[in-house]
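== Sequence entry ==
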Amino acid sequence: MSTPTTLGRPLRPRGKLRQEDARRHHRSLLIQQLFRDGPASRADLARAVGLTRVTVSDLVGELVGEGLLEELGAPVGTRVGKPPTLVGLAADSRHIVTVDLSTDGRVAGAVVTLLGSVVERRQRDLDGRRGREAQLLVHELVAELVAATDRPVLGIGVGSPGVVDAVGTVVDAPNLGWHDTPLAKDLAAAFGLPVFVANDANTAVLGEHTFGEALEGGLMLLRVGTGVGAGLVLEGTLLHGHRAAAGELGHVVIDPDGAECGCGRRGCLETVLAEPRLRRRLETEDAATVLAEVGERLGVALAPVVGTLNLHELVLSGPTDLLDGPLREAADRTIRARTMPVSGEELVVRTSTLGDDVVIVGAAVLVLAGELGVS
């Protein structure tokens, strides 16, 4: 039986580095290099990662034997002397099963290659299921996806709304009726595979950072769906925060006299920006006016975050018909008006290039990072 793997790591090693740990680290260096920059010769890999050619040759042979890497022959245009043999990541040698729980009213899943390509999709309607019934539906979907691939499954990745701790327990997800739900532990026990569960916004920001068009510098992804949350990647590292609750912007109060929120307070950002509430409002009011107003409120809420962290990119992820247009433009304009030029003048505010797949491929990154040490 497999067990869920923690996403959190101590800042300092707590013991002597063992030989097997060093070998695992060196394997990750090679896979990461090929994952990021594509095929290379053994000699080029040795230079790129700072290991000896003997060590690289040994590790590459091991990884080729496992099927994770494949030999691709000589590079095009090689003429003088014995040509080097390129090796590359065997993207279809393993598959990853991923689940997105962030969309209102349904559970979506996919089978994904090591390079983030979706090869199979499935989805189920929640039909009002909450609590244990919703959890069982996730198990049914995962079982269907595992059965849909003929490749070894590297692991299962899940993006869930709410607060999720480092071992994949959903501490609180009111929209699903989950409280201290050991989702990763239960899935690992059921399927005997490594399981990684994270907050959907954190999962999405990893997807954008790894497979999207993220720039250098701080990245915030704001995920808008049934609820509202944010994921942050700073200097290449996902920000978890104390008690794994970094990015819970949906429950920041922007209007103490506003509508009642599912958390029990009034006027949270989620009460104006969450997709179900925003669509209901658009049924009776002018769309452009409402979206611009909500975008301005969002900009007011985000300006202190942008100014504090000096972010380079703010990515809006969710229904593009709501987010890309007056809402995005108003948020962009408001943030720039409320921050110093050094914070706002180079800020990029855009929608996700990955569209509806941002959590699906982000969940694959959870598994890639946990099992292969790459992202």
